[in-house]
């Protein structure tokens, strides 16, 4: 019998892709899945793509309604503002406890690891934090770390009857397969800034970096996790870690912000979107739309738990592989193209200016 699943954020980038992946793997689950939508305008799209799916319309602050809806499901996957919206997490826990327990898969973000940095961190030294040997570090970060208040609540809510897990992805890239949002934020926002300001932008410290993972690889992990979680509910013992040990960092490698900014700039110049390839050094607040990790040089996440317990490995292309598509997409959003054809032609060798054909 298909499991009864409650999923939030289905109109979002990650949630939409995970829903696509879940129903591609298990088309017979469609009528047993309920998705929380905050916008009635999406009803037609969801009913057209997934005729059997159950739609639940509510604000994330409608905690009583969410708790009541959750109580009718055995497993919850939370994406909608999940990293920072405490009331919705509280409602989910209340609903699952109301039914006598269940499974809560929560989504956070590796920004939380910025709380592991110290003011006096030696220049050039990087602290690598994994979710296996470093689980105590991950689950006991300072209270002022990003997302930490919600993480703490979820970690403290686990019990013998309520199994909780936190999946914590780094920068997510790639074009999503969801019905509404297919765009990530951090790298597209950086590309957008460069295109708007008509010059390459980077921090003075070229060593700043962060981790990343392709949205398809991340969705594949969620599907595998849900499959194993459902299997465990019908077995005496499983292989997943839950509650205080149920914290899963997700990454497939690191990238340097300066290198990505240079690749964006070079690609934009090649397409005739920038007058030059030169990079301009700016302050961190200029790059704020790219996210908090833009100034990180001290902390790196490492995925161990998902690899050991689930056999998960990333198989999609790297972030640099996606840069041409990101630049083209952001240029289209900014309408930096010929209004008639919308096509792009780049600079030929020796040309000084590129045009849109």
Provide a descriptive summary of the structure in words:
It holds the Pfam family Epimerase. This is NAD-dependent epimerase/dehydratase domain-containing protein. One of its GO terms (cellular component) is cytoplasm. The protein has 357 residues and is an alpha/beta fold. It has two domains: 216 residues, 3-Layer(aba) Sandwich (Rossmann fold), CATH 3.40.50; 83 residues, no CATH class. It has eleven helices and 14 strands. Strands 3-2-1-4-5-7-11 form a seven-stranded parallel sheet, with helices on both faces. Strands 8-10-12 form a three-stranded mixed sheet. α3 packs parallel to α4, α4 runs parallel beside α6 and α9 packs across α11. The chain starts with a strand and ends in a 24-residue tail after the last helix. The C terminus is likely disordered.
Please give a handful of descriptors for the protein shown:
single chain; 357 residues; alpha/beta; Rossmann fold; 2 domains; seven-stranded parallel beta sheet; three-stranded mixed beta sheet; 11 helices; 14 strands; globular; Epimerase_deHydtase
Number of domains: 2
Shape: globular
Could you tell me the number of beta strands?
A: 14
What is the H-and-E element order?
A: EHEHEHEHEEHHEEHEEHEEHEEHH
Helix content: 25-40%
- What is the CATH superfamily label of the largest domain? NAD(P)-binding Rossmann-like Domain
Mean pLDDT score: 91
Rg measurement, Å: 21 Å
Looking at the chains present, what oligomeric state does this protein adopt? single chain
Category from helices, strands and their pairing:
alpha/beta
CATH class of the largest domain reads: Alpha Beta
Low-confidence stretches: 338-343, 347-357
Biggest beta-sheet profile: 7 strands, parallel
CATH topology title of the largest domain: Rossmann fold
Protein name: NAD-dependent epimerase/dehydratase domain-containing protein
Domain NAD-dependent epimerase/dehydratase: 5-85
Pfam families: Epimerase
GO molecular function, one term: aldehyde dehydrogenase (NAD+) activity
